[in-house]
Amino acid sequence: MTLLTRRALTTAALAGTLLPGWSQAIPRQPIVIGHRGCSGERPEHTALAYDRAIDQGANFIEPDLVPTKDGHLVARHENEIGGTTDVASRPEFAARKTTKTIDGQSVTGWFTEDFTLAEIKTLRARERLAQLRPANTAYDGQAQLLTFEEVVAIARAGSQRAGRTIGVYPELKHPTYFASIGLPTEDRLVSKLKALDLNSATAPVFVQCFEVGTLKRLRAKTPARLVFLVDGEGGPPDLPGVKYADLITAQGLKDVAVYADGLGAGWSQVIPSDAQGLLAPTSLVKDAHAAGLQVHVWTLRAENYFLPAPLRKGDPASPTFLAQHGDVTTLMKALYAAGVDGMFSDFPALAVAARG
């Protein structure tokens, strides 16, 4: 399949191609991606969070994927699960606490690659940001960890319930690291896409990654739509010495378009801000569109902690100030006005309302 054909199919998919077995076409308007589900209101990567995101109008739900010891892909923000599960309170797993180097950083805790899926299934999820989201801790201990297949099943059941297509937006986390320990994830994901009838350019799926090599290899293995994740700082873990900024110039984006269909950019790369407020959009969306790339921005969160100072609300002297909600809607509307094609949010209802 030529790149031109693949992009034409991508456009057709967004314009309304219906995948058999899924309820309705993905809308033409910018998509809202439930970031790890509705993780602002429920513990992330759980059925509780994903179902709430769907009910709030999300078009896609996002699972970050990491492997188990026996090769299953499970939905966790990181392979270190001490902060998102009850594993630290489980005496039978105490000896598995260890320190590893992940993408150049030393991390101490419990890691999915040291557990079988059967063991993972005995754990229960808990809120990762308890200080900012104390209400979510009421759901601690209620939800199992999910496989990728189970997340897809939630999306499909949600499609039937909502009467519209709910897609999935998986991210391969740390693929170079996992390949280095004998647990490569690229072929595992492609195998799942094929088994789940998602291995096409018109399927309701985007596959995202911060690593260039992974996307290039996936491009040769699957026609599914791929998204290159970038940040305002640093660079791809698999390309030491290369900065994301070097790859998203007007010319660089044309090179990205050879192996990706979209760009997943931090929101501040599209709408910067200063002490006075939001600034004019950068040229990133225009340049990406000129290269044939969609732009999906991450991650829109309502808490003051995640917002630029001019959009924060409440009394800064309050001990709960950073957890209080600020004016994220103004930021969301500015991003939509700048022409983004999609938005990751921990609060899908707010992103849907701002889209109008």
Set down the secondary structure blueprint:
Blueprint: H1 3-15, E1 31-34, H2 47-55, E2 60-61, E3 64-67, E4 73-75, E5 98-102, E6 105-109, H3 117-120, H4 148-162, E7 167-168, E8 171-172, H5 175-180, H6 186-195, E9 206-209, H7 212-221, E10 225-230, H8 244-247, H9 250-256, E11 262-266, E12 273-274, E13 277-278, H10 284-290, E14 294-300, H11 328-337, E15 342-345, H12 348-355
Parallel strand pairs: 1-2, 1-15, 2-7, 3-8, 9-10, 10-11, 11-14, 14-15
Antiparallel strand pairs: 3-4, 5-6, 12-13
The major beta sheet can be summarized as: 8 strands, parallel
Approximate strand percentage: 15-25%
Count of helical stretches? 12
Shape: globular
Distance from N terminus to C terminus (CA atoms, Å) equals 36 Å
What is the overall pLDDT average?
A: 93
* Low-pLDDT runs: 1-27
Helix content: 25-40%
Instruction: Encode the helix/strand succession as letters.
Output: HEHEEEEEHHEEHHEHEHHEEEHEHEH
SS content category: alpha/beta
Q: Measured on Cα atoms, how large is the radius of gyration?
A: 19 Å
List how many beta strands DSSP finds.
Answer: 15
> Which strand order do you get reading across the main beta sheet?
7-2-1-15-14-11-10-9
Quick description:
This protein is α/β, with parallel strands linked by helices and 356 residues long. The protein has helices at residues 3-15, 47-55, 117-120, 148-162, 175-180, 186-195, 212-221, 244-247, 250-256, 284-290, 328-337, 348-355; strands spanning 31-34, 60-61, 64-67, 73-75, 98-102, 105-109, 167-168, 171-172, 206-209, 225-230, 262-266, 273-274, 277-278, 294-300, 342-345. The chain is built from twelve helices and 15 strands.
